[in-house]
């Protein structure tokens, strides 16, 4: 049955309106489009600018495709110009080659500048001292160590509002990817490497973090809670863990590192130099944002001698 022309146009406009409303109304539910930190905000701006620039080409092409199909369709009384020998138009060639080239060059400049500006190991400008958190990817859980506070947690991350966080990231498992969408882009967690990522939360609230790589059977459960609080609440949280939680021993870490899922856990202390031991036990010097000297200084500050490090290696083999 052939629908009336007015009804076909109404259906088309309704579908277009639905797509526009659905795509704009769900931005609050899309984490990367609802940033709460300076890095994530800059990344959202980059995505929006890139999308708008691409739309300069994509939208006219889609519209012209529909117009051409409609205008040059086979029907009686067709009034479109018939030009079988037409082959070239300098004006059109300049338009459909010049505009994409200009957009690509613009994207290249924007992307290059953003790449340097958003270098993950670049410290954030702030009047507050950065908080260091050492992140270890395990199968299938996340271990967070707070070296300055002397505590550790599993699948729970708490940070003060408006304080830059210096994440030092490694893995004692297959490669994974550390990602908190509303704070910033992901950073790979790899065994034998210490990666650095600076992020910051500008608002208080609870957010979602996860591993963004396939790492085996239970990879889908490798997510963690992120909470941004006031400095006072953060200090109380640390004090509560130090008072009420058990210590993480080397034997406990060895058991924790075995492939398994885990609920949220907390530890009042952890072995000194545990993060450095995890990085160096794979006998590689590769790192990103953490120099070999910094690693040695961390080990020295933690009072870890060469013999103790060797004992740790033997204990975890």
UniProtKB/TrEMBL annotation:
It is a multi-pass membrane protein. The lineage of its organism: Bacteria, Bacillati, Bacillota, Bacilli, Bacillales. This is Quinol oxidase subunit 2. Keywords: Cell membrane, Copper, Electron transport, Lipoprotein, Membrane, Metal-binding, Oxidoreductase, Palmitate, Respiratory chain, Signal, Transmembrane, Transmembrane helix, Transport. PROSITE patterns: COX2_CUA, COX2_TM, PROKAR_LIPOPROTEIN. It comes from the Bacteria. It comes from Paenibacillus gyeongsangnamensis. Belongs to the cytochrome c oxidase subunit 2 family. It is an enzyme of class 1 (oxidoreductase). Binds a copper A center. Residues 24-122 form the Cytochrome oxidase subunit II transmembrane region profile domain. Residues 288-317 are annotated as: Disordered. Its main location: membrane. The chain crosses the membrane at residues 50-73, 94-112. Catalyzes quinol oxidation with the concomitant reduction of oxygen to water. Subunit II transfers the electrons from a quinol to the binuclear center of the catalytic subunit I. Subunits I and II form the functional core of the enzyme complex. Electrons originating in cytochrome c are transferred via heme a and Cu(A) to the binuclear center formed by heme a3 and Cu(B). Its EC number is 1.10.3.-. The gene is cyoA.
């Amino acid at each position: 049955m052939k629908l009336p022309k007015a009804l076909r146009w109404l259906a088309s406009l309704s579908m277009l309106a639905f797509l526009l409303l659905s795509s704009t109304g769900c931005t609050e539910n899309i984490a990367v489009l609802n940033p709460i930190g300076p890095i994530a905000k800059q990344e959202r701006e980059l995505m929006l600018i890139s999308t708008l620039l691409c739309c300069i080409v994509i939208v006219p092409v889609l519209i012209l495709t529909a117009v051409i199909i409609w205008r040059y369709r086979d029907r009686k009384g067709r009034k479109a110009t018939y030009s079988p020998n037409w082959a070239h138009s300098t004006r059109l060639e300049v338009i459909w080659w010049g505009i994409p080239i200009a957009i690509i060059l613009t994207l290249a400049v924007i992307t290059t500048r953003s790449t340097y500006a958003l270098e993950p190991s670049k410290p954030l400008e702030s009047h507050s001292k950065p908080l260091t958190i050492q992140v270890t990817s395990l199968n299938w859980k996340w271990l967070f160590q707070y070296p300055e506070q002397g505590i550790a947690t599993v699948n729970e991350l708490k940070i003060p509002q408006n304080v830059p966080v210096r994440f030092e990231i490694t893995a004692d498992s297959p490669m994974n990817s550390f990602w908190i969408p509303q704070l910033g882009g992901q950073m790979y967690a790899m065994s034998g490497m210490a990666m650095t990522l600076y992020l910051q939360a500008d608002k208080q609230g609870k957010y979602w973090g996860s591993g963004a790589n396939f790492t085996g059977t239970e990879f889908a459960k490798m997510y963690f809670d992120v909470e941004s609080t006031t400095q006072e609440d953060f200090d109380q949280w640390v004090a509560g863990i130090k008072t009420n939680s058990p210590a993480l021993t080397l034997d406990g870490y060895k058991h924790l590192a075995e492939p398994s899922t885990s609920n949220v856990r907390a530890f009042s202390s952890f072995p000194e130099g545990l993060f450095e031991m995890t990085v160096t036990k794979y006998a590689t010097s590769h790192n990103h944002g953490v120099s070999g000297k910094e690693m040695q200084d961390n080990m020295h500050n933690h009072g870890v001698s060469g013999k103790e490090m060797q004992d740790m290696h033997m204990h975890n083999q």
